[in-house]
Amino acid sequence: DIIQTKFLKIRKNINNKQKEYERQYFKKFLGVIIFYFISLVAVSNLLWYFIPPEDFFNYIQNPGEHLLLLGILFCASLLFTLDITYLQEKFCVYVCPYARIQSVMFDHDTMQVIYDEKRGGLIYDGHTKLHKKPPEGECIGCEACVSICPTHIDIRKGMQLECINCLECADACSKVQSKFNRPSLINWTSAKAIETRSKVHYLRFRTIAY
Questions:
Q1: Predicted confidence (pLDDT) per residue in 121-158, tens digit
Q2: HEC readout, 22-78
Q3: Which of these, 34, 87, 109, 198, could form a disulfide with 91 (CB 3.0-4.6 Å)?
Q4: Same domain for 135 and 80?
Q5: How many CB atoms lie within 10 A of CB 111?
């Protein structure tokens, strides 16, 4: 985000991830080059777990004798760059198994990103959007939580597989609600804690068993 908005200025607003990139092809190409060098450093750092850094730098000075190492370095860096520049949030939605694995283990006490419907008001009935701004509740319908979401979901709809629990929506809501001297409507808590207004139960049979 910092490289795209502050350095290259491809995006004008870091808080709106739904807006398409501006058509600045040279800057986009420059961004790919920057991300590739960042990926080279990241992959090199990973390889240093298996090859001491001093040996690593000696090896790359003799590329003809260490083609496998260089192949892994450059190909893995290319994959990292592809992930950062093209796949982006698509990796989280379609490739990463995190959400699907976690959803199997969910219960009412599971910590997750939750919109407080009791305070904010009812916006969705299932997948049907009833209101942009609920007639009753503290949600003002600014949709800052929607604009900033990297996986393009509306957390007010409820738990969704696409949610990666980054809590950017909670931060966005917190900024808006702070203007009214109210806490965020989106929090890192459990469904049971929201319903009963109680504390989250961390130690329970399921967490100990897992």
A1: 999 988 888 888 888 899 999 999 999 998 889 999 98
A2: CCCHHHHHHHHHHHHHHHHHHHHHHHCCCCCHHHHHHHHCCHHHCHHHHHHHHHHHH
A3: 87
A4: no
A5: 16
Q: Are residues 128 and 205 in the same domain?
A: yes
Residue 6 scores a pLDDT above 80: no
Name the residue range of residue 49's domain: 1-87
Instruction: Please choose, from the candidates 135, 166, 141, the residue with its C-alpha nearest in 3D space to the C-alpha of residue 156.
Output: 141
The Cα–Cα gap between 28 and 176 comes to 32
Instruction: Determine whether 73 is exposed, middle or buried from the number of CB atoms within 10 Å of its CB (0-12, 13-18, 19+).
Output: buried
CA 111 to chain CA centroid, Å, is 16
Supply the pTM of this predicted model. Answer: 0.72
- Mean residue pLDDT of the chain comes to 86
Nearest C-alpha neighbor of 103 from the set 59, 63, 162, 35: 162
**Hey, what are 17's tokens?**
């991830």
Domain boundary among 87, 118, 138: 87
- 193 vs 85, higher pLDDT: 193
Q: What is the secondary structure of 116-185 as a DSSP string?
A: -HHHH---EETTEE--SS-SSSS--S--HHHHT-TT---GGG---TT-----HHHHHHHHHHHTTT---S
